[in-house]
Design brief:
By secondary structure, the protein is mainly alpha-helical. The chain has five helices and two strands.
Length: 161
């Protein structure tokens, strides 16, 4: 049974404030990832496209959940980073619920911190702004949505932007 259904992708904001444009672009990519997973069952979401790669749509959801938690909850909001937020055997429904909750929390954090808010990033080993984190996450999603497109095509031939 498909875990992800009825995905609606928000359009970009073409004219607006910097914050509106960045937030909507990130939301568009978040929805694009879900759209690539829409209608697939557990086995299909765990399908590996080519050996020896272990990349699956399921793993992309898990990875981007961690990225949402790390960059927004840990870096921007200063919370402790949880040591584990899911495992390979977790049901898809749990991973999806965790992903959606992390995205919702990221939206709340972004709404309450200015773009100029500066934090220390262990990844880059230096201070970065909230603006940089939003731009970084857009790039992260853009790369992984490309991977998701190839993974989906290998499962059932479905393609799309």
């Amino acid at each position: 049974m498909a875990a992800i259904k009825d995905v609606e992708r928000p359009d970009y904001v073409y004219i607006g404030s910097e914050t509106e444009i960045l937030r909507r672009m990130l939301d568009h990519y978040r929805a694009t990832l879900l759209w690539k997973c829409e209608g697939l069952d557990d086995d299909e979401l765990r399908h590996r496209s080519v050996w020896p790669s272990e990349l699956t749509l399921f793993e992309l959801l898990r990875h981007l959940t961690g990225a949402e938690i790390y960059w927004f909850q840990h870096c921007v909001d200063g919370r402790n980073f949880p040591p584990d937020f899911g495992n390979d055997a977790a049901p898809v429904e749990d991973v999806l619920e965790h992903y959606l909750a992390a995205c919702d929390e990221s939206r709340l954090i972004t709404a309450t911190h200015s773009l100029e808010h500066v934090v220390l990033s262990e990844v880059y080993g230096q201070a970065v702004s909230h603006r940089f984190i939003l731009a970084h996450m857009i790039g992260e999603y853009a790369r992984h949505c490309g991977h998701a497109d190839l993974l989906r095509e290998s499962i059932d031939g479905a393609t799309g932007e």
